[in-house]
Amino acid sequence: MWSWMAGRPCRCLRIGASKLAWVEVRRGWNGRPRHRCAVTSLVPGVIRVSPVNANIADMPALEAILRSLVWPARHLRVDGRSWIRQIPLPITLILPDLCVRTVVLQLDQLPARTEERDALIRWRIGQEQLVPLADAKVVSQVWSPGRPAKGPHTVLAVVIQDAVLAQYELACESVGLIPVDVDIASFRLFNLWAATAGWTGTSAGDLMWLNVADGGLTLFLFHDGRLVFVRTKLLGSAVPSEDGLHTGPDDRNRRVIDECLASIQACRERHPRLTVQRLAFAADDPDPELPEVLAQELDVPVHPLNWSQIQRAGWKPVGKVVDAVALPAIAGVL
């Protein structure tokens, strides 16, 4: 989503609420790319995802886990002592959706100059009082597939507090990682799904994209080939009932479905002709029954992002990876 260098680093770190995933591209003897992936769990409470408050509650603990994940066997012996060799590495950093605010804007005109465009987008967000902008970074992407160059223009804007981003960057830099490309999980996953599914938005009908990760969900709605609605929501850990609080997968599935239905209803207030014809789906801890339940409740075909699609996109792993937490990091290098 936002980058400080041209090109894409061949290493990606995905920081989630409860797990970390590290992916890097290596070249074999024949020059073909091979991918190494490692996933590790975080001690509960190390990261508390929030768009407004500090996210990293225990920086030393996170740094220690990062070192063991990224530099597992890169040691240099000097005078009989073992040192971890840490050559600074440029990386793509994937952050949780829940640590940013995401806004969709429809603009009739966009200035050609980047500085003027950024100023207009920031002003528009402030005028509509969508999210607080004090001490925050705003990055944006014009996302209007198939639309005429003169407009209207769909702009996807992300607001992240400077203090939140600085914490994650500091954690990376402390272990020799330099984030030069920063994104959030849902954006990378959606771009990967669209590429593997051949989706362009121009003739495939209205689409819902859903990602369930880090204790929350992110949902995109596309109407007439345009992104018209975005929702990122914390799902919570429990829901009330007559018997107390329940935290099982059925309860989480119900909350996901309710948010999907509420989003469709809210979107139809501005776009009455919205008719979702299919749903693309990803999850970091998927319940096997959720895709089927979504298909039944929403009455649409559901297309989960799966490993066969990842392999068709060029994923050539060293060893077998089965943890879906790694998917955004894999998308970061493909």
**Largest sheet strand order:** 1-11-7-2-3-4
Protein structure class:
alpha+beta
pLDDT under 50 segments (min length 5)? Answer: 238-246
Helix content: 25-40%
Which radius of gyration do the C-alpha atoms yield? 21 Å
Sheet having the most strands: 6 strands, mixed
Describe the structure.
This protein is 27% helix and 34% strand. The protein is α+β, with helices and mostly antiparallel strands and 334 residues long. The chain has a six-stranded mixed β-sheet with strand order 1-11-7-2-3-4. Helix 5 (249-268) packs parallel to helix 6 (290-298). The two termini are 15 Å apart.
Topology:
Blueprint: E1 2-3, E2 11-15, E3 19-27, E4 33-41, H1 59-70, E5 75-78, E6 81-84, E7 89-95, E8 101-107, H2 114-127, E9 136-142, E10 153-161, H3 162-173, E11 177-184, H4 185-197, E12 206-213, E13 216-223, E14 226-234, E15 239-241, E16 244-246, H5 249-268, E17 276-283, H6 290-298, E18 302-304, H7 307-312, H8 327-331
Parallel strand pairs: 2-7, 7-11, 12-17, 17-18
Antiparallel strand pairs: 1-11, 2-3, 3-4, 5-6, 8-10, 9-10, 12-13, 13-14, 15-16
Provide a short characterization of the protein structure:
This protein is of the alpha+beta class and 334 residues long. Helices cover 27% and strands 34% of the residues.
What labels would you give this structure?
334 residues, alpha+beta, 6-stranded mixed sheet, 5-stranded mixed sheet, 18 strands, globular
